[in-house]
Design a protein that fits this description.
7 helices; alpha/beta; 4 strands
């Protein structure tokens, strides 16, 4: 039997392997082609807002929806894609990103501080999922 690992140790071990990103780094990588996967529940997304350009796969179904060998109706993300997970506060996404690496997404990571820190960084958040994004530079020019 393996020795017990407290959750804090699991989180720390996973975080070291991932090379986690700040919200600003994640936004820049996303704009350069990385795929941002929002793992929050529909209720959390409605309460906190929607992240423009993100793909939504709730944590409870994430591994099945992304595993290319698992038959699901959603479009599959290639195993060699840069996948960045984001959750509410940056805890559950750490473990989920580590699991994604184990099923073959070698370039998976997550966002430190989750959507809470994303919002604190002043990055775009939509009130509705289909709302158009207005870039900060464009909003100032209007």
């Amino acid at each position: 039997m393996s020795p017990r690992k407290p959750i804090d140790m699991l989180l720390a071990d996973a975080a070291v392997r991932l090379g986690r990103l700040s919200p600003v780094e994640a936004w820049a990588e996303m704009r350069a082609g990385a795929i941002l996967v929002d793992t929050r529940s529909p209720d959390q997304r409605q309460a906190q807002g929607y992240l423009p350009g993100s793909v939504h796969h709730p944590l409870s179904t994430l591994l099945w929806r992304l595993d290319p060998d698992c038959p699901t109706s959603n479009e599959k993300i290639p195993l060699d894609a840069r996948v960045i997970l984001i959750c509410r506060e940056g805890y559950s996404s750490v473990l989920a990103a580590a699991q994604l690496q184990e099923i073959g997404f070698e370039d998976a990571t997550d966002v430190i501080g989750g959507v809470e820190d994303w919002k604190k960084a002043g990055l775009p958040v939509l009130r509705q999922a289909n709302e158009p994004v207005v870039e900060q530079d464009e909003a100032v020019a209007r």
